[in-house]
Amino acid sequence: MEVVPPWTVDDARELYMVERWGDDYFGVDDEGRMTVAPLQARGRRFAIMDVVDAAMKEEGLKAPLIIRFQDMLHHRVRVLNDAFNRAIAENKFRGNYRGVFPIKVNQMKEVVEEILDAGRPFHYGIEVGSKPEVFAGLAVHTDNDSLIVCNGYKDDAFIRTALLGRKLGKKVILIAEKLSEVRAIVRIAKEIGVEPEIGVRVRLVARGAGKWAESGGESAKFGLSTAEILEAAAVLREAGMASAFKLVHFHIGSQVPDILIIKRAVREAARYYAKLRRAGHPIEYLDVGGGLAVDYDGSRSNFHASMNYTVEEYARDVVWNIADVCDEERVPHPHIISESGRAIVSHHTVLVVEAFGTIDKVSPRTSDEPTIQHKLVVTAQDIAQNLTAQNLSESWHDLLQLKEQSQNMFDLGLLELDVKGCFETLYWQAASRIVALIGTLDPSEVPDELVDIQRELSSQHICNFSVFQSLLDHWAFGALFPVVPLHRLNERPTVESSLVDITCDSDGKVAKFIDRENEKNSIRLHPIDKGPYYIGIFLTGAYQDIMGDIHNLLGRVNEVHVFLDDDEECGYYLEETIAGNTISEVLRMTQYEPHDLASRLKAQVDAAIKQDRIKPTEGMRLLAEYERGLKDQTYLSL
Is the pLDDT of residue 411 over 60? Predict the structure, then answer.
């Protein structure tokens, strides 16, 4: 009999690919706990479970819980700016890098403020794309040497607010998404007496790849054609504002996994810049938009959840290709802008969920001999007892035939429930033994028809959270996020499982996970029979905080912000905690006024008391519980 080697934390690192996607921020310690180093090798490393315990014991917060490692935002801003500044120096590029953070990726105030604070030495600015965002952006932006780039469709109020920033001495650049916006900007700028700075978004032929490929290309939602760009320049010239034409912009989509696509798009946009500059337009900036990817699965490939390049390679390729086109066209090098949001904020957030139950297909065996002597049961037991590595396919075929036969008999009323239940138990136990025997074979020897049995056998860990609130991109686009238990990684995980949430919707689940090649339908987890079991969902800092909805009226989750501090014995402190939504708060969002609800229920309780259905004391107690419950948080109290 083959001896199974003991499980080690190195096995956990390999199974969950932590060292591939963790990017030196995340790891596993010798006690089997997930760790975080917000500054990588330059700072302290500590166990994430210690933060969870502190949030629960000191602040009274429970899972689901968002943990923000704010120092990581500073580190990501520095990584991006340093990469561009090195590339500029290496290529003797004659422009500067002036990146902006697109706040649509995460509009949370503390996130934006931390990024702007981290970016101050680099004059790192922000990008806004809606009226609410421009109002927020003007107020939190305080470095007048950094940019505010205004994207998105604009009405007069949007334009007026942006131009207020120009009055305040800010470098606000309005990007025209359509020709009519150029005319509106000119008109309003004249009305309020300010010189605008205007850019145009070019609709490139080059397209992105992956889940968001359709946001680029000639059929993109935004952007001007070549003819429209020339007409926009003519409008500015006729208005006496030719000098306002400052920027050429493009965007080929979020999470572009292939560097070759980025190179092609940059060269095409650089050619637009160079030709317009040669035509006499005083353009100073080339905005390469977003698209800088995050390696969610650690495969370092052009798969949609990965990237086949690094931040350093991205910066070098952007700088070199722009310089090459400009030198060829003999025009000045522009200042480079990028709108890299995902790469800045994804890493800093971990979503912590608690698994409190499982849904299993394989029932525990209570006896080797079933008490029901039915032909289906006896045959299934015989198949299970005679399984070998040599007869797996034949045995599986026989089991499938029996399963179909049992269902047909049940449909015709010829099979009692106790027989059906006994057979189904034996069926799944036999399938489980087949999977165990498959594990002893060379993968190349396993027939294709047996590969999917593992998925059929997988369990489901029931977790106290909502996919629709906290992982909307997974539900909507099939986006992948690393999922890892936060503790017990020094124990062998024995359960193939997926995650299901507490919503009433069957889509409320995580059933696609990162893998070395493409994706897989289950993940290996631990049984939850040893107390609370916490799972971390990583790299969730981009979009998930903002795009979630209140499906089932499950609102925002609890949140804690962590900062490094060498004066603290543990190396960090909890800077702020933010309680998740209460039931009253989410009810108000849908026009239910809690006071009115309590009044309505009181009227029903009073009527029940008058009809002697309940006693007065019981009625008052039930009403008090109802009113107290309105103040509870929306998630389960485990």
Answer: yes
